[in-house]
């Protein structure tokens, strides 16, 4: 699931290359009216109210998006830390069932194996559905990036091109330094996220450490540096968020795992006592 969404996300430059709103008569349709036009209006409104500081406007947009996504991201980190630890504990029971699923030849055999798997999941308080939240941040960001790209490349109000200066760079032109910063921060983000990945997913994490910065460099060097600013602020926020949340939720996961082990031990002890009583009878 995650690989499919990642592939779609990495196809972004090729999808965007097919969009052309240079002609005002072409500025219509679902994509433009839903994503590009509202982003253009938002950038213009924020920039105008911030004394034409469009760099700060982009930063505010990033922070707003990140704070909206924060509960989902924290929930994913919490679940990821627990899953990483509990899967090690449950491995001896899960591995035979996974092999059973692979060997299953009939629908009945697969159904029986899946029922066994769900029983183990219930025993160890594993909820696979919660992992689907990991795709949500990517899905939310994609239309925002589409809209921001179109708003920067084909602006209606042209305010960002009239007031392009922010820090040392021109927001309407590519900038090698902000590109390098964005690439480095995305590399660090991928590195930090590895801590929260199960072992069977870490290979994809290592791929992301290379692919993500390369993707950022490709887009940033062929687009307005405002996109590089967007990615830099977004990645910096994520690096800080993931570092702090990983430390916090790792401790909570250890506590939850200890409680779970104690509960399982009590359950095994009760089963043993019942078995002994039956034998005596």
Automatic annotation (TrEMBL):
The record's NCBIfam families line, in alphabetical order, gives: yidC_oxa1_cterm (TIGR03592)
Similarity annotation: Belongs to the OXA1/ALB3/YidC family.
User: Could you say which residues form the signal peptide?
Assistant: 1-22
> What Pfam families does the annotation carry?
60KD_IMP
Q: Tell me which Gene Ontology terms the entry assigns under biological process.
A: protein insertion into membrane; protein transport
Cellular component terms (Gene Ontology): plasma membrane
User: Where in the cell does this protein reside?
Assistant: Cell membrane; Membrane
Under InterPro entries, the record lists: YidC/ALB3/OXA1/COX18, YidC/Oxa/ALB_C, YidC_ALB_C
One MF term in the entry's GO annotations: membrane insertase activity
Provide this UniProt record's keywords sorted from A to Z. Answer: Cell membrane, Chaperone, Lipoprotein, Membrane, Protein transport, Signal, Transmembrane, Transmembrane helix, Transport
Where is the Membrane insertase YidC/Oxa/ALB C-terminal domain positioned along the sequence?
54-246
Where does this protein have coiled-coil stretches? none
* Name of the protein this chain belongs to: Membrane protein
Task: Report the principal subcellular site.
Answer: membrane
Which chain regions cross the lipid bilayer? 54-74, 132-156, 176-194, 206-223, 229-246
Question: Membrane topology type, per the record?
Answer: Multi-pass membrane protein
């Amino acid at each position: 699931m995650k690989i499919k969404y990642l592939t779609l996300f990495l196809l972004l430059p090729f999808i965007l290359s097919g969009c052309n709103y240079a002609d005002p008569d072409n500025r219509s349709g679902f994509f433009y009216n839903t994503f590009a036009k509202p982003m253009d209006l938002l950038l213009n409104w924020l920039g105008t109210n911030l004394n034409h500081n469009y760099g700060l406007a982009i930063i505010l947009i990033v922070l707003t998006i990140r704070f909206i996504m924060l509960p989902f991201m924290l929930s994913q980190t919490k679940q990821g830390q627990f899953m990483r630890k509990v899967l090690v504990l449950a491995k001896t029971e899960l591995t035979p069932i996974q092999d059973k699923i692979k060997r299953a030849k009939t629908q009945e055999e697969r159904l029986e194996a899946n029922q066994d798997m769900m029983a183990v999941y219930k025993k160890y308080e594993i909820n696979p559905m919660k992992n689907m939240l990991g795709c949500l941040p990517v899905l939310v960001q994609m239309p925002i990036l589409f809209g921001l790209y179109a708003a920067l490349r084909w602006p209606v109000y042209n305010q960002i091109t009239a007031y392009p200066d922010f820090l040392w760079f021109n927001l309407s032109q590519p900038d090698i330094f902000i590109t390098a910063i964005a690439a480095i921060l995305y590399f660090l983000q991928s590195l930090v996220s590895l801590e929260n990945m199960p072992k069977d997913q870490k290979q994809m994490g290592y791929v992301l450490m290379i692919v993500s910065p390369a993707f950022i460099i490709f887009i940033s060097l062929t687009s307005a540096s405002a996109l590089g600013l967007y990615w830099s602020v977004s990645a910096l926020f994520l690096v800080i968020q993931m570092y702090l949340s990983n430390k916090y939720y790792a401790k909570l996961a250890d506590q939850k795992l200890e409680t779970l082990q104690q509960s399982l031990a009590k359950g095994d002890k009760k089963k043993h006592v019942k078995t002994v009583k039956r034998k005596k009878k």
